[in-house]
Amino acid sequence: MTYALRPAGTDPQDAQNGTALSSAPEDRPGSHSFVRIDPMRHILLPLALLAAAGTSPGQDAERASHGLGAAAPQISFEEQHGDFIVRQYQLGCLSQLTYLLGSGNEAAIVDPQRDVTHYEEDADALGLDIKWVILTHTNADFVAGHTELARRYDATILISGESGSLFEHDALQDGDRRPLGDVELEFWATPGHTLDSMTTLVHLPGVSPDPAYIITGDTLFIGGIGRPDLVGGEITPSVLAGRAFDTMQRFKTLPDATKILPGHGAGSLCGAHLSPETVSTVGAERATNPYLQIESRTAFISRVITGLPVAPKYFAFNVNLNRTGPPAVDWKDEMPPSLAPDEVAKRAQDGAWLIDLRGAKEYANGHISGAVNIDVRGRIDTWTGIAVPFEADLLLVGDDDLVKEAAFRFRRIGLDHLGGYLAGGMDAWKSAGQPVRRSELIDPAELAARIAAGTEPVLVDVRTPTEYEELRVGDYANLPVSDAAAFGRVLDRTQPVTFLCNSAYRSSMAVGLAERQGFENVSSLDGGLDAWLDAGLPVIGTMSEETDVSTAMAGPTTNSVPGAGSPMILPEPMEPGAVARAMMDQPQLYRIIDIRPSWQFDEYHIAGASNVAPAAVEAFILGLPAGVRAILVDRDGTTAFAVAGLLQGSAAGETHSLRAMIGGTAAYFREVELGESALRGAVGSSPMPTSAPAADSASASPAAPAPAASAKKPQSKRRSAGC
């Protein structure tokens, strides 16, 4: 069963039909309501909300789901065995996964986020009393709600005895066990990400495999492991990486069918190479996770400590706050202090940081000089933590709704000390006669023309080096916005500079960061690389569309590349509607394999799809259960057919039926999600089913991932990772 958020003011039953109530029930501050919906309607929900808000489908998908999507917890996985229930909550904006476990009349909450109302509501609805609050380690990327839940329920906090925690807790040692109703929870010390990392093994009476689940926190992710460089002090990353190697060997002793429930998904800065899937199995990870395949300790350590992403400035603060015990928050206190324009101007002159919460176009049309544009509809919490000194005097610019949203989300990462907000927003600023600065958003065609004429500005790609290598407009400077201080060290402040990223989210942020450093003429590529690609302009890189399929496959096959003198056997084609139908009626018999670059997959993908590089497709298919049919998907269908064709004569083609989806993800979104020709070719003019058959969770394939919590349209220009 798939879950999604219920829009405020709708009854749980009516939410599926979009029927609003005449009066909304009073919600608790910081609470979010849920409704069960079928696997296809959960894809359509963001569009329904968009329409209800009077917003056109071409506008930003995150704008349409503001406050209801990535910024609110969603139930992304759930299973039941007898009276036992495990429920996984996904908080997209922090890539955070938390859990409710229940048995008998007792519940345990694992790694709770700071706003805890949804755990309370769900426990109450299930007739459970919260007995345990389990911390897999001392978290760095968010402020946990452990002390709040313990206070409200008189619950006991369980955490490793190595944590040095200063709040009241039960100090766990390796091998300790605690009861939860009829279930037994076992705790393994699994250091690597941190010294105090613990994994919870869930033993269900009479259920195979045993353990049925392991909740790994940040030790083991789907496709990756936790980074070892967040502890600080005298413990070096290499030492922790060595401990992680030992932990991985211990995980390998568990049954292949044991399900893995991690602490984060794709987009988290607590690890690298994380999959967007939120559930896996020990067997699946043994086959696909590179960190479970490395046999050499030295090689393992070298890989783990190489290419770590930048850690936001607030991580160290949150470690101390979580170790001490976070103070209680009054979630009803929604707004920071109101400030007049002259006070904001004075504070800015004294060094305050101004965060402009609006969209990139609004910001470009007029903003306070030096204000940093971090759109509230993206990952404002993470990016503010990266870009802004944590103890800075922080002032917000935007309308009241944006300010409320930002203040709420900042508390999740410990930013409780906001200095205030500009009362009346930019309208008040302009009315007060304060100076307004504008920045240019350069159209992709215009920039291309300037490049052709040799008159382009200094171009700076502010994405990560990995993104830059995969796909870029040319061999221009790559200075990630996470190290914005490099702008002043490397660039000429008097020369015109144009920043670019995937969608203009990070590049718009870079404009304000450069202005703070005294740059005189800075601009951003309108729509970013997405708009550049949509305009059909050329790109280079390891994953550009010009990449030869045979090179991308990087492995011998028995078939030739098209045009090489030997025919290639084409796979069975599937219309988008047929794929949707298959995934609804018989999901256990199909696996969607999306072979696009990870940045495209992170922006939008079909629910339940796995993101696999072309070179790894054959090994991935061979790891699927017998009888499962592989459906390859790419952007427009061309590469998927070529890769599937090349695999027809391989071992994967011998053991599994290979298909490719016609028209790629763009066609799927247009025909299935927008319903322009719903299920064309699969069911004629039949309407899309409104419900899916209930699946027996106990009989589901152990390697099958949970469906994605939400989907975004390919044309959306804002990625969940901050674009």
UniProtKB/TrEMBL annotation:
Entries under Pfam families matching the protein: Lactamase_B, Rhodanese
Keywords from the UniProt entry: Hydrolase, Metal-binding
Residue ranges constituting the Rhodanese domain according to the UniProt record: 348-438, 453-541, 586-677
Biased composition (Low complexity): 685-713
UniProt keyword Metal-binding present: yes
EC nos: 3.-.-.-
UniProt cross-references to SMART domains, sorted A to Z: Lactamase_B, RHOD
Biased composition (Polar residues): 13-22
A Gene Ontology biological process term: hydrogen sulfide metabolic process
Alphabetized InterPro entries for the sequence: Metallo-B-lactamas, Mito_Persulfide_Diox, POD-like_MBL-fold, Rhodanese-like_dom, Rhodanese-like_dom_sf, RibonucZ/Hydroxyglut_hydro
GO molecular function, one term: hydrolase activity
Compositionally biased region (Basic residues): 714-723
Region (Disordered) residue spans: 1-33, 681-723
Protein name: Beta-lactamase hydrolase-like protein
Species in which this protein is naturally found: Saltatorellus ferox
